[in-house]
Amino acid sequence: MSAQYEGGSKGNPVQITEDEAAVYDRQIRLWGLEAQQRMRNATILVVRLRGVATEAIKNIVLAGIGKLVIVDTDEVSEEDLGAGFFFRDEDLGKKKVDAAKARIESLNPLVAVQAMKHHTLLERESLDALVMSVDLVCVTDWDREGLIQINEVCRRFGKPFYAGGTFGLLGYIFCDLLKHDYISPDRSAPSEAPRNVKASAVYSPMHMALRHRWSGLTKRQTKELNPAILHVLLSLWEYQKVHNGKLPESLDEAPELLSIANSILATSDVNKQVLDSMPRELIETMSTSASHEFSPVCAVVGGVLAQDILKALAAREAPIANFFVFDGSSGSGTVCRMNM
Questions:
Q1: How many of the other CB atoms lie within 10 Å of CB of 222?
Q2: Would you say residue 3 has pLDDT above 70?
Q3: Residues linked to residue 325 through DSSP beta bridges, in sequence order
Q4: 244 to each of 8, 92, 257, 258, how far by Cα in Å?
């Protein structure tokens, strides 16, 4: 089956009407008409509808993007009813995109929603066509190799790329915005005369970011970045690769996860005064919880993900650069610049 892609915000830009300006009045006051106009003309692709995507979609649709394309080949399961608030009991067994589409549209009738559920969509030619038809790509709760592959396709066509997801109590966001220009407040200007300045950042693709080395950081700088949380995330991706996509589900798998995590830690040159081996308690917690979704963690990570996507589209303020991790057990989040 060949998939049909309806064009996004190509050709002539859509102008915001008076009615739309009234709906988005508060946001226009916040970041200006030009930024809202950019969002209004943006087509965003979101791949996989789990808890993080649900929260992110809610926020970007309410903010007033032009079009949302959702891709998921799965059916709604009982597990999805916890963190995925687009799904109801009566949706069990239905395709996720079919169950979610009308509820997403009801959030904001001004946003066009296209649902796609073909198994071939993420194969080479279909993926190329799909990425070309949108302005920004967001992939959630995916394995490392898949994220790297989709990131490379986005790079080939010059499209910004976001990845996000959770493993139990832990969450992450990665972004590759290529060369991103934005307007930022001038912190050096006197407070009575605030002004904005143009800034830009050059991002790394995911495969390069994951080769990041932590050398050269002081003890304090290393501690602030919470390296244990980031390294357990990296080790879960590696575990998935070894086990054909499966995550650990019991304490029996903790020794293997610990071995993988310590191996990754040894090669990344983290300050040994801060972290010379992975905390066993953290590894054991992840061994039993990583395969589950927790609504509060999905809400935080999805909220931050949506906020950053909107920030990137509006080109106001600096977006995440370039890896955000969230520790649900402490409620703290940190941003690490990985090979930027």
A1: 18
A2: no
A3: 172, 334
A4: 34, 26, 15, 18
Confidence of residue 41 (pLDDT cuts 50, 70, 90): confident
- Kindly indicate the confidence band of residue 101, based on its pLDDT and cuts at 50, 70 and 90: very high
As a whole number of angstroms, the distance between CA 195 and CA 181 comes to: 17
* Residue-range definition of the domain harbouring residue 167: 18-182+295-336
> Which of 303, 171, 140, 182 shows the shortest CA–CA distance to 236?
171
23, pLDDT greater than 80: no
* 300 neighbors 268 (Cβ within 8 angstroms): no
| pLDDT, tens only, 53-62 | 999 999 999 9
The two tokens of residue 125 are 């030619």
In the chain, the number of structural domains is 2
> In whole angstroms, what is the distance from residue 325 CA to residue 329 CA?
12
- Over residues 298-314, mean pLDDT: 94
Cα dihedral 56/62/68/71 (nearest 10): 40
In sequence order, the β-bridge partners of residue 323 are 174, 336
User: 232: which 2 tokens?
Assistant: 């357990």
Question: How far is Cα 142 from Cα 310, in angstroms, rounded to an integer?
Answer: 22
Through-space distance between the first and last CA atoms of the chain, rounded to whole angstroms: 40
29 with 161, same domain: the answer is: yes
User: How far apart are the C-alpha atoms of 296 and 303, rounded to whole Å?
Assistant: 10
For residues 228 and 299, membership in a common domain is answered with no
Burial (CB < 10 A; 0-12, 13-18, 19+), residue 281, is exposed
Q: What is the pLDDT of residue 196?
A: 80
38 and 112 belong to one structural domain: yes
Q: What is the pLDDT of residues 259-274, one digit of tens each?
A: 999 999 999 988 888 8
